[in-house]
Amino acid sequence: MKKESNITIHDIAKALGISGSTVSRALNNNSRISDKTKKAVRDMAKTLGYQPNALASNLRTSCTNTIGVIIPRISRYFFSSAITGIEEFAREKGFNVIICQSNDQKERESDCVQTLFASRVDGVISSVALNTDNYDHYKTFTNKNIPLVFFDRVCDELETSKVVVDDFKGGFLAAEHLISKGCKRIAHISGPQHLNLYINRLQGYLKAMRKHNIQIDKDQIIESPLNREDGLACAKKLLESSNPPDAIFAANDTTALSIILYAKDKGIRIPQDLAVVGFSNEPFSEYLSPSLTTIEQSGFDVGLKATELLLDIIQNKTGNRQETIVLPVRLIERESSNKLPN
Amino acid sequence: MKKESNITIHDIAKALGISGSTVSRALNNNSRISDKTKKAVRDMAKTLGYQPNALASNLRTSCTNTIGVIIPRISRYFFSSAITGIEEFAREKGFNVIICQSNDQKERESDCVQTLFASRVDGVISSVALNTDNYDHYKTFTNKNIPLVFFDRVCDELETSKVVVDDFKGGFLAAEHLISKGCKRIAHISGPQHLNLYINRLQGYLKAMRKHNIQIDKDQIIESPLNREDGLACAKKLLESSNPPDAIFAANDTTALSIILYAKDKGIRIPQDLAVVGFSNEPFSEYLSPSLTTIEQSGFDVGLKATELLLDIIQNKTGNRQETIVLPVRLIERESSNKLPN
DNA sequence: AAAAAGCAGACAATCGATTGCACAATTCAA
DNA sequence: TTGAATTGTGCAATCGATTGTCTGCTTTTT
Q1: CATH class belonging to B167-297
Q2: Are B196 and B163 in contact (CB under 8 A)?
Q3: Which single residue of A256, B54, B115, B146 could bond B141 by disulfide (Cβ 3.0 to 4.6 Å)?
Q4: In chain B, what is the greatest distance between 2 CA atoms, to the nearest angstrom?
Q5: CA A228, CA A189: separation in Å to the nearest integer?
Q6: Mean of per-residue pLDDT scores for chain A
């Protein structure tokens, strides 16, 4: 009923008449221990129901076998998929994962950094908050040589590895797709320009436009925080202008959703009057009416890759590298852009 | 560049010419230490940039200040919201959270139990996998007196506390709402009957039917694993019968979605020919066409409450109690049931 | 003024696994 | 046969914070 006195390596040692250090080495498969002893130790460990005390081991080795994750919000599908990828890989390698949410606020992000640091995680994977414009708090990690890998929303200021999707190509595919559907006046709603991924999506869009000699109108490119409300405002601004676009490429699905809702409300037909393409392939995009054409990016793969990279740095003690891994994206054609080229 | 030798309580002690134990007690606000000394210690700690080493403390106290969470899948909105609630509360109280996903498989759930146990978490919050029909693996915790709280998908076999939403009322509200809209033949697609929450939703539905003297037809109540595919099969079965229902109450939104997709495909008008109500208020339900009437349940609140309960058990060492907290639900009326009573 | 009580702080053991070094036993080379 | 090399284990210190017990000093009580 009380504390079951836990089995320690010393109990095993006593049972076998050997020393604790030998047991420890045997369990860690140290080459200095004979196979016979190793087997005896392992068998006895099983018999006694030994459970290693990670705490003690952590204290001695100052490795926690834990990685920290900082994400804006877990309830966004892309991030929860990323978490799944991170966990999958980390657990398989014997690492635990501690997750912190910044709620897209820089201050909370700083708190997350502190929490993870105090938990003495062996490494950190992060996707920065929307309004993070300065990365000093991350120096808590880099100063102490704690490996750090960014994903999706990455930070260029710090010398770390990064995992992103091919946002440039995504932007390009989206725009070219709209062009192929005969759209002539293609607007783009972009995100905060201090984040690479939005810059890249925009650049991809611009490249497609140039490639096909479509005139680029600065009024048709607007920056937005990409939430529901601002999406409506952007839709209004674009669609009520004297020369409205015949297509909009939104830098995320949430904004594309706002556009669709706005258009429905105003009797603008999609895709006939206005074609729409989003970005991310959020789960809801498939069920919208019309369903949303979008760029698929695999959160799972991004998480997996980031973890692979991080654990490699941790285990090989190579120090923070500056590798950048770019994962592929894919255009998913649905109804919102399904019109005949005219 | 190498290991910055970390500041320990002994460094503080040396700097002040006092002993380590005094520093420890001062930092823990022990009453045996004078205010003057406490202040001196705290100031010095700040000056030196002292960061307590949780590992050492954990080892000594055998408390990890960490709670474990086992959930089916983090990518489902209800669960990610619950996680947010759990984290919010736990962090505020100085606890870390380790999350494990069972992917709705009993075997993985067992693995999660082992992982969390090996991590020596101070307590566990769990929502069981769909196919878990036996709870022996959870005894790993109960045997060692590790507090355990279930939420949403709870287990009655073990003597633990539980947090659920009012599924019975939800079922009742859903059915009564359909009745108020003039529906006469109301089908119900329920979930696995070894899970209380589906039993309760069903019972709520039955009570409403009885209250309003609507005939209950056993053929109109079917059990389903409640996924996309099976939802289509259920829809087909119900709607192609010789006497199809004029309303369906599905035990989750995913199944309701399947019904809507099936009906669209077959030219069945919603809500005129068929009214539909789901359960959960998943984010997509708002954007469907027609938008989905559903029962809202707050994952966040459930997570918060479960954590409150768990931390209370941990901190007051009251042992596992058997409290059951029931949180409210709410009907959200949308288009899929918006027809005039006939 | 002597005894009792209270206070502030120090000492040292402890949590359990790891690891540098020492040492014994065995094998091998010369 | 002796010295060297190799192999298998044990000893004891260590990681850093916590905590039961003890000490010396101050205050209070009678």
Answers
A1: alpha beta
A2: no
A3: B146
A4: 90
A5: 13
A6: 93
Q: Sort out which chain A residues have CB atoms less than 8 A from B52's CB and list them.
A: 118
In the block, residue with structure tokens 């054609």: A333
Q: Has domain A9-52 been given CATH number 1.10.260.40? A: yes
3-class secondary structure per residue, B113-176? HHHHHHCCCCEEEECCCCCCCCCHHHHHHHHCCCCEEEECCCCCCCCCEEEEECHHHHHHHHHH
- Can you give the pLDDT at residue B5? 60
Q: Is the Cβ–Cβ distance between A154 and A198 less than 8 Å? A: no
3-state helix, strand, coil in chain A (%, to 5): 45, 15, 40
pTM above 0.85, yes or no: yes
Domain ranges of chain A: 9-52, 66-165+299-328, 167-297
Does residue B24 lie within 7 Å of nucleic acid chain D, judged by its CB? yes
pLDDT score, position A58: 94
**pLDDT given for residue A321 in this prediction:** 79
Q: Is B336 on the interface with A (CB under 8 A)?
A: no
| pLDDT of the residue at A5 | 59
Cα separation, A112 vs A115, in Å, equals 5
A21 in contact with nucleic chain D (CB within 7 A): yes
What is the β-pairing status of strands B221-223 and A148-151?
unpaired
Nearest protein residue to nucleotide D20 (CA to C1' distance) is B21
- Which pLDDT does position B342 carry in this prediction? 67
Q: How far apart are CA A228 and CA A95, in angstroms?
A: 37
CATH of B66-165+299-328, one of 3.30.70.260, 3.30.70.100, 2.30.30.280, 3.40.50.2300: 3.40.50.2300
Among A4, A91, A284, the residue with its CB nearest the CB of B283 is A284
- CA(A34)–C1'(D5) in Å? 18
Q: How far apart are CA A56 and CA A3, in angstroms?
A: 18
Write b or e for each residue in A128-138: b if 16 or more Cβ atoms lie within 10 A of its Cβ, otherwise e: bbbebeebebb
DSSP letter assigned to residue B186: E
Distance, CA of A149 to CA of A161 (rounded, Å): 5
In angstroms, the CA A70 to CA A103 distance is: 10
Structure-block tokens of residue A300? 């799972």
* A5 lies within 8 A of chain B by CB: no
What is the pLDDT, as a whole number, of residue A340? 84
From the list A158, A165, A163, A149, the residue with the least C-alpha distance to A318 is: A149
Query: Residue A149 CA to C11 C1' — how many Å?
Result: 46
